[in-house]
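Data availability (excerpt). The following record was deposited with the supplementary files.
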Amino acid sequence: MTLPKISTDCLLATISKMSQVPRQEFAADVMTDLAINSPELMGALTALLSGLLEPQDVEQVDLEVAQEILLETVFVCVGITLKSLNAQAEANELNEAWG
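Predicted structure:
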């Protein structure tokens, strides 16, 4: 499968929309959407990302806080990617219909 190229405008619009809600809310929405609409993908991502949560040697930041931030950040990145792909696919369809 070839993924569509995501335009800068589409990516910026997706990031802008994402930034209108708290990061934790966006991450929770992405995880909920994946769990409902693509449980296999959610399971695979969770399994792959769980290795990042293994105990680390951290001296200045509480480990649980660092792990929570890392998990949220990863899901934000995944969410931006998936939502950008979806928005770009829709934009491409509209351009084809009107072009």
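Summary of structural features: Residues 52 and 67 are 8 Å apart (CA to CA).
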